[in-house]
C-alpha cells in the first residue's frame, strides 16, 4: 500500500522529487564542497529560478537557513532595536512573537481567537514600532490573510519593516514585493521537499536597518546573521555548510513548477480548496474551522470533527491516506488537510470521496 501524505508539513514530496533525488545521488551533488565552482553554479541556478517563480525584484536577496524558525531568531538579533508588533491568530504566529520576546525585545502581541482574523486595514500601530510580523497563512488553523489587506496596512504604515511568514502558502499567493520588506518559508510544505531548509528573502531596507543597528552596537553578529547572509549570497554562496542536496532539489522542483506554469498551479489550488471546503460544509460531522471564505487558506483546510478526529484519521491511515491532526489545543478535535502543488486534483477528489464513505 502506497501512502499519500496530505499532512500540512512535512508533506508529500513533489511528484518529480524522487527522480531528482536519484539524479543528485548519481552526480554526487550531496558531496560537493559548498565553496566549489559546481556549488556556486548550482546555487545561482536555484536562486534565479526561484526569483522567476516568485517574481522577486532584484533588490531582494535570497538567503538559505536551516529552517523558517531560524529566521525568527535572526530577525530578533538583526532587525529590531526594541519594538515590534505581531498579529497572532494561531500557534505559529504566536511562536514568532515568543521568539522575539525571548531575545529581550518589547514584542507586542495582538491576538484574536484561533480561526478568526485581524482587521488589518483598521489596525493602529505606534510610531516606535520597527517591525510588523504577519503569518499570511496560519498552518495551525487554516486562516489566511488576504494579500490586499496586507497592502492596505502597509499603505498606512510604511516606516516599519513588514515581514511575512508564507511557510505553508507559497507559491500560491501572488505577492507584490514592493509592498513588503521580507518574506520567508521552508521547503517541506508547498514545495514538496524533505525538511531541513529555510528560504529567507529580504530587501535593502532590511540591510540598511541591520547596518544601522550594527553601528549603534545593537546588532548581534551571530551564526547566519543577515549581513553575513547577504555578503555570501552576492557570491552565490552561504555563510556555512548548507543543505546542499535540498538547495539542488529546490531548484529542480521550481523549474518543474515553471514548466507547468504558475497560473495553472494556482487554478488547481482554487479547485482543490473548493472541494475541501464543500466537504466541510456538506458532511454532517465536519465543520470548517475558518467561517469566512475570504480568510480561508487555499493550501491548508481545517475542519472541526464532531466527536473528535482520532477515529477518522486512523481509518484514513489504514487506507494509506494520511491527513493532519489538529494542532496544539485542537489535537484530536480538528483535521488539517494540505492541498499543496504536489497533490493532484484526482488525489483530493479521492480523499473527499473516501471521507464521505467512511463511518466515523
Task: Describe what this molecule looks like in 3D.
Helix 1 crosses helix 8, helix 2 runs parallel beside helix 8 (244-260) and helix 9 (262-282) packs parallel to helix 11. The radius of gyration is 20 Å and the shape is globular. The chain contains eleven helices and 15 strands. By secondary structure, the chain is an alpha/beta fold. The strands form four sheets. It has a seven-stranded mixed sheet with strand order 2-10-9-8-5-3-4. Strands 11-12-15-14 form a four-stranded antiparallel sheet, covered by helices on one side. Strands 1-13 form a two-stranded parallel sheet. It folds into two domains: 4-12 and 261-357, Aspartate Aminotransferase, domain 1 (Alpha-Beta Complex); 17-258, Type I PLP-dependent aspartate aminotransferase-like (Major domain) (Aspartate Aminotransferase, domain 2, 3-Layer(aba) Sandwich). It has helices at residues 17-26, 37-54, 68-78, 91-102, 147-156, 204-216, 226-233, 244-260, 262-282, 310-317, 345-357, and strands spanning 4-5, 61-65, 83-88, 106-111, 131-135, 137-138, 143-144, 161-165, 182-186, 198-202, 286-288, 300-305, 321-322, 324-325, 334-338. The mean pLDDT is 97.
Summarize the structure.
By secondary structure, this protein is an alpha/beta fold. It has helices spanning 17-26, 37-54, 68-78, 91-102, 147-156, 204-216, 226-233, 244-260, 262-282, 310-317, 345-357; strands spanning 4-5, 61-65, 83-88, 106-111, 131-135, 137-138, 143-144, 161-165, 182-186, 198-202, 286-288, 300-305, 321-322, 324-325, 334-338. Helix content is 39%, strand content 17%.
Amino acid at each position: 500500500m502506497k501512502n499519500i501524505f496530505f499532512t500540512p508539513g512535512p508533506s508529500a514530496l513533489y511528484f518529480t522529487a524522487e527522480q531528482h533525488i536519484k539524479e543528485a545521488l548519481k552526480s554526487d551533488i550531496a558531496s560537493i564542497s559548498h565553496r566549489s565552482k559546481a556549488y556556486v553554479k548550482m546555487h545561482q541556478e536555484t536562486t534565479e529560478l526561484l526569483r522567476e517563480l516568485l517574481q522577486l525584484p532584484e533588490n531582494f536577496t535570497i538567503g538559505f537557513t536551516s529552517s523558517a524558525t531560524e529566521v525568527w531568531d535572526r530577525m530578533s538579533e538583526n532587525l529590531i532595536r526594541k519594538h515590534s508588533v505581531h498579529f497572532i491568530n494561531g500557534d505559529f504566529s504566536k511562536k514568532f512573537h515568543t521568539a522575539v520576546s525571548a531575545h529581550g525585545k518589547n514584542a507586542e502581541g495582538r491576538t484574536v481567537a484561533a480561526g478568526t482574523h485581524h482587521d488589518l486595514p483598521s489596525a493602529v500601530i505606534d510610531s516606535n514600532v520597527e517591525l510588523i510580523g504577519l503569518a499570511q497563512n496560519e498552518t495551525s488553523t487554516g486562516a489566511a490573510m488576504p494579500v490586499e489587506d496586507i497592502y492596505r496596512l502597509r499603505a498606512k504604515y510604511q516606516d516599519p519593516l513588514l515581514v511575512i511568514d508564507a511557510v505553508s502558502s507559497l507559491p500560491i499567493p501572488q505577492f507584490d514585493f514592493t509592498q513588503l520588506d521580507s518574506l520567508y518559508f521552508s521547503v517541506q510544505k508547498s514545495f514538496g521537499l524533505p525538511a531541513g531548509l529555510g528560504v529567507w528573502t529580504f530587501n535593502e531596507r532590511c540591510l540598511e536597518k541591520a547596518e544601522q543597528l550594527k553601528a549603534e552596537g545593537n546588532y548581534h553578529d551571530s551564526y547566519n546573521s543577515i549581513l553575513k547572509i547577504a555578503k555570501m549570497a552576492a557570491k552565490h554562496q552561504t555563510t556555512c555548510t548548507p543543505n546542499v542536496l535540498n538547495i539542488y532539489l529546490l531548484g529542480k522542483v521550481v523549474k518543474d513548477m515553471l514548466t507547468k506554469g504558475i497560473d495553472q498551479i494556482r487554478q488547481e489550488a482554487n479547485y482543490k480548496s473548493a472541494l475541501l471546503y464543500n466537504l466541510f460544509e456538506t458532511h454532517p460531522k465536519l465543520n470548517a474551522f475558518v467561517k469566512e471564505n475570504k480568510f480561508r487558506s487555499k493550501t491548508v483546510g481545517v475542519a472541526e470533527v464532531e466527536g473528535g478526529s482520532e477515529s477518522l484519521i486512523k481509518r484514513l491511515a489504514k487506507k494509506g491516506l494520511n491527513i493532519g491532526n489538529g494542532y496544539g489545543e485542537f489535537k484530536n478535535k480538528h483535521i488539517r488537510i494540505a492541498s499543496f502543488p504536489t497533490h493532484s486534483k484526482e488525489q483530493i477528489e479521492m480523499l473527499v470521496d473516501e471521507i464521505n464513505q467512511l463511518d466515523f
